[in-house]
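Q: Entry one of two.
A:
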Amino acid sequence: MSDSDLTVGLIGAGNIAHVHVAAWQALGARVLVHSAAGAGELAAQYGLEVAPTLDGLLAAVDFVDIVTPSATHKEIALAAIKAGRDVICEKPLALVAADAHELSAAAAAAGVRIYPAHVVRYFPEYVAAHSAVVSGQIGQVAVARFFRQASSPAGAGWYREVARSGGVIMDLMVHDLDQARWLCGEVTSLYAVQSPPTVDGISPVNVAAHVTLTHEGGAISHLRATWGAAGTPFKTGFSIAGSKGVLEYTSGKDTGYSEELQAGSAGGDLLIPSSTLYESPYLTQLRELAAALKGGPEPRVVAADGAAAVYLAEAARESMATGRTVDMSVFNPAGVAE
């Protein structure tokens, strides 16, 4: 089967949908779109087909690509799994660990795959760092630092409701929680703080969260995620120090790689990195995931990775709520089967 033989069911029509559509079209896939709102406009812009109902879409496609708000991921993914369809799902896989594990278990029981779209694993700088760490170029990792900042999306829409977005930890830091585990290994303990704190389930518009992870191999990683004032430039980076050397990257320096604000970002639009040096990491990601769904090799990110990132984010919320370090060997969020 060639990419041009693929029929993809895109569920959702928000900002990130545009990036996914561009990637699918570059791969020559046929795209059907279904959304509670905006499907017609998205279809008209890109020449897509609209599926009026979710059931109709599921019956007509090879697999689905879920790009809806985070709180809807579980329900839609379960419907796709029930219909026997493989699933690609934007991060986070779910908002709580129990739901992420339920999705993984449901997919396994149905004999289908569910892959979380943790796109940072496809950014060249992070790929290079992972290769250097795995090959031992910097020796044993001792300390790693990751940061990610963006203009806050919480001024409008559903982002301020932590029950729907997961707050800055789940919405923004989840990328670096995944990176820290990918680069430094499994996590044994976690401590998290946030300033200002979330009150009555409502996130501050401008907020910073800090998480410290201790990893099985002895490495310690420090993560910072910030939703800044309107107009705050999107920046991300890392510093990974090992016994033989240090790896450093920041998008804020003139490396030929740029990050740009989407038009109207002050209104809460997503910030999508862009570069002219290489193909879109979103395209690289969806090509790899589609190839895996067609019987190719397992991709670099699988359901267990998406569930682990959600698990760490939930532990971070637990630490912030209690003021204590979380022992990951005994941490068991409500609803997760032992």
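Q: Entry two of two.
A:
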Amino acid sequence: MRGLDLRIEPGERVLLLGESGAGKSTFLHALAGVVGDDEGESEGSLLVDGEHPAATRGRTGLLIQDPDSQVILERVGDDVAFGCENLGVPRDEIWRRVRESLDAVGLDVALDRNTSALSGGQKQRLALAGVLAMRPGLIVLDEPTANLDPAGVTEVRDAVIRVAESTGATIVVVEHRVSVWSDSVDRVVVLAAGGGVIADGSPSAVLLRQGEQLAARGVWIPQFPPPRPLRAERGPQQSLLTASQLSVGRGKRAVTALRDFTVPSSHALAITGANGSGKSTLALTLGGLLSPVAGAVLATPALAAGVGEHPIRWKSRELLTRIGTVFQDPEHQLLTSTVRAELEVGPRALKLSTIEVDARVDELLTRLRLDRLAEANPFTLSGGEKRRLSVATALATRPQVLVLDEPTFGQDSRTWSELLALLARLVDDGSSVIAVSHDLEFVDALADSTVTLT
């Protein structure tokens, strides 16, 4: 991000938009004083309350894109209290704020609950509770509702607004889905991918007058929804995976019991349900990465191709062309120092020729708008770019079954549409897609069937 001229008044509520990779997250980190100078590069000036952002860190509350990176302590109550303790808030006041903040974001768990036992959506609520408990004068939120179920989206947004109303805090929020915040903010600012601002004004002025132009740049405008792919006619389907009397869980965590179901070829299965219901655990179990607590996940001969019917027993190389998995947190599967090298890992493990490796990598770089980033370090990408890269790494080995956890996280409308089209084409060509998602538009556009966890 460069060339930005912007003034935000005290108490304003600003929705910051822009296509994937435009620098939205970088700007929020700069406001919070955690980028620039010793961290990264900067030019020009940025002031918060008339001071360098590093001097106002205690007065700025930042919620980052990856909630895992913001969880610090082992117990829920201690984690929410951490920021307040660093600000020297009196002990009795800290614990009153802890309980109020957890109630506000709808995280109904015991204060001594282990933070590692929370789902991704619950960790997102936890991180937000820690921010709100600090009572910051500036609240900066990066995709605060991305991993939340539909009810949680409204709950969390309303909690932020209530805190701002009671404290007079300024809000700057990044969210790709305009409709979530458009009625709750005073101002919409749209960053240009090449630098600077392309729109700035009231929600009605920006979204109504420039809606079509912004939609063409990838901004989610409700009146201009992104295109959906046309689905091809499918031939006879064969069973690839079956779940039989399946129960899933991790260690001592609660077990989710499921009805029997089958995943056929040329089929898209969506896994939906509330935060904490076990969706990610089910996805990892179907992907052959977690053992079932009870029952079994079985591969048919059409998928197993001679390596046995239990995916949990397959070696990593045997999984590569059979079941590919995309984790909820893309950073958990980044291994190398460049985007291109990341995409080469799977094909090279299959001992493909250099010509074939290059062909697969080049196609994926282009299809997922990562070609300009081919030599970049994966950890320097935006959240949406990391998500597309993680999907691409799984696609590079062309598995028959692709398991994805929140595949549309962090995507602008253009990359969302392109990712959807790519997955639809895989299904049309005979592969199966299993997707955990809170994105109801994505589920409606792609899924042939749905398993809903409670």
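A: Comment on entry two: The CA atoms of residues 244 and 260 lie 5 Å apart. The chain has a mean pLDDT of 91.
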